[in-house]
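[audit] Reproducing an earlier prediction to check determinism. Same input, same settings, fresh worker. If the tokens differ from the archived copy the diff job will pick it up downstream; this log only records the rerun itself.
[audit] input (291 residues):
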Amino acid sequence: MANPLPAGDPDVAAREHVRAITRAAGSSFYWGMRILPEQRRDAMFAVYAFCREVDDIADGDAPLDEKRAGLQRWRRDIDALYSTTAPAPTKPTLRALWLAINRYRLDKQDFFEIIAGMEMDTDGSMLVPDCERLQLYCDRVAGAVGLLSIKIFGDSGESARAFALSLGTALQLTNILRDLKDDAAMGRLYLPREQFEQRGVAIGTPDDMLSHPKLPEICGPVAERAREKFSEAEAMLARADTRALKPAIVMMMNYRRILDRLIARRWQNLDDDAGLSKPEKLWITLRYGVM
């Protein structure tokens, strides 16, 4: 059980802090969440700000031991939010999370899974992981976010949970296929090891593997896996509360378009992230989130 909500109005400074972090990211996430009522939207912004801050630790330039220590501090901070004896948090993101956890009964383990996913990014295991490890990573950094999100949206039934996990994998695989060059700059390549081995491509540096002429063949099955997960997620919607899950549906439609563009371009230009324009994002938001 988390600490009880503080008396009085919600923490305005904490709310503005997580709103600013989410707006600054300029991601498809922001467009999907804008259609939520204010309290639910602010709870989602708190979750996003948490994800952004732990991700910044994993992706930063600090030495490995400092990264691990920073992520462990976050684990302790999250744990304290669920304690009835711990003092009220002072960091604005934690204060915003405190409100979200209490209002929507968010599970502590989902936050811990996200942190564990960030730790995978720091231990060197995400350089051409095998399929099993890649799925674990997707479940942690995206599936766990989805499980937190559906509670805030208002449907955490079994079909909604299955939807969240399938969609999380689809979104994360799309991110991986979109961000190959940026990830390589950090010494990471999330494409599954089995795809390289099946095509006789030697495991080397990320840059070497990305420059291999068989890269489109390696990315193709990953893209197909993402498409399958999008289809699984869509099938789950028939048994879930689609009105409650509209923000997630907006994200799904945004990312499906990005994936389709990546497939059409066959990874010939890794500087092109296949991103959507603001008018495209607005149309998708109106079409799937409002109408």
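[audit] rerun output stored. Observation attached for the diff report: The first helix runs from residue 12 to 25.
[audit] end
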